[in-house]
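Sanity check

After download, print the first record. It should look like this:
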Amino acid sequence: RMKLTEQDIIRLNNILTTCAVGGVESIIIEDGYVRGVNEARTFVIISNHEVPKFPQKIGLSRLTSLKQRLELFSGNPATIIDAKESDRGEIGSLDISAGRSKVQYRCTSTMLIKAPKSVNDEATHKIFISKDELKLILNAVKVMGGKTVQLVIKKDRTVSIIANDTTNDAFTAVLDTPAEFVDEDQDSVVHY
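Expected structure tokens:
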């Protein structure tokens, strides 16, 4: 048994928010890394940045349900997440509690989750997003509610992120830091 720290709970929530943006519903957290991919295989998360520490690997599916269960106790500083280890060398369940109220979340075997260990695509650009920019962009994507987000990298290295709503009203953010090109002879590019 292991209790997550307050910092680990914040980190887990941040990961769940990122996964929600990309439509990822299952992840594996193991050896300081989080890995997952959406069903369409168009959005991948592989990161070792601010990943909560668990004593064993953990498979999390139904991420929307987990996020909702965490939100039951949001804002309560007495929230505790107790990770229960299983005999198969993985975390088997999470007990989320505050005071005398508790909700359980059963984990999924990591063998059942298809999470890539690496991205085989060749890098063409590097973009840099500050925490404040990312927070604004993620909130805007939620508010706009559209189906796609455009990442526009111009030849002058300017990076824009555009989110449209269903009536085609647009939110646009221009990042403070210019992109780096892997190949110096790059043209402008738009990713959806």
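If your output differs, re-run the checksum step. Summary of this record's structure: The first strand starts at residue 2 and ends at 3.
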